[in-house]
Amino acid sequence: MHALKKDRPLRRIVLACAATVSGMVLLLSLKPHSTPTVAVAVPAPSNGSSASGGSSGSATGTRTVTGDTIQTRWGPVRIRITLKNGRLTDVTAVSYPTDNPRDQEINSYALPRLRSEALQAQSASIDTVSGATYTSDGYRQSLQSALDSARS
């Protein structure tokens, strides 16, 4: 006798429900990507500047400013810029998501591209790197906060 005979509809309903519940349990047991709990950060220079961004130098010479730490879905992003005579000469990612190999892979191609675009645009008006949307958004926001701090 076959377990799914047509003259036993209740048995088919019970088996279908059991299969559905088993599938849901397996689906819910998958582990999502976790957010890192520890941020990689370099302390800002201690010259009496605010906690959100350190700066050094003068307005007409060379000046280094660190932007705000922006929390993204995959981890914090923080940018440090160097201005020379008012021009953006260097952009460095101080902290960025490095929790797993996929984060490292994404950032290995996204960060150089974002840096290049920021230096070319001389502003935070840069394009998002495909595949690195959250990092691009955090990069842009931290870059803008560093630029704002440098202007004040």
Task: Describe the overall structure.
The chain is α+β, with helices and mostly antiparallel strands and 152 residues long. The chain has two domains: 1-30, no CATH class; 55-151, Sufe protein. Chain: A (Alpha-Beta Complex), CATH 3.90.1010. Helices cover 39% and strands 18% of the residues. It contains three helices and five strands. It has helices at residues 9-28, 101-121, 133-151, and strands at residues 55-56, 62-66, 70-71, 76-84, 87-95. Strands 1, 2, 3, 4 and 5 form a five-stranded antiparallel β-sheet that branches. Helix 2 crosses helix 3.
What is the structure about, briefly put?
The chain contains three helices and five strands; from the N terminus they run H-E-E-E-E-E-H-H. The relative contact order is 0.14. It has two domains: 1-30, no CATH class; 55-151, Alpha-Beta Complex (Sufe protein. Chain: A), CATH 3.90.1010.20.
- How many domains? The number is 2
Low-confidence stretches: 34-58
Mean pLDDT: 76
Structural category is alpha+beta
Name the overall outline. rod-shaped
CATH class of the largest domain: Alpha Beta
Rounded Rg:
25 Å
Strand content: 15-25%
- Main sheet makeup: 5 strands, antiparallel
Q: Can you tell me the CATH architecture of the largest domain?
A: Alpha-Beta Complex
According to CATH, the fold-level topology of the largest domain is Sufe protein. Chain: A
Helix content: 25-40%
How are helices and strands ordered from N to C? Answer: HEEEEEHH
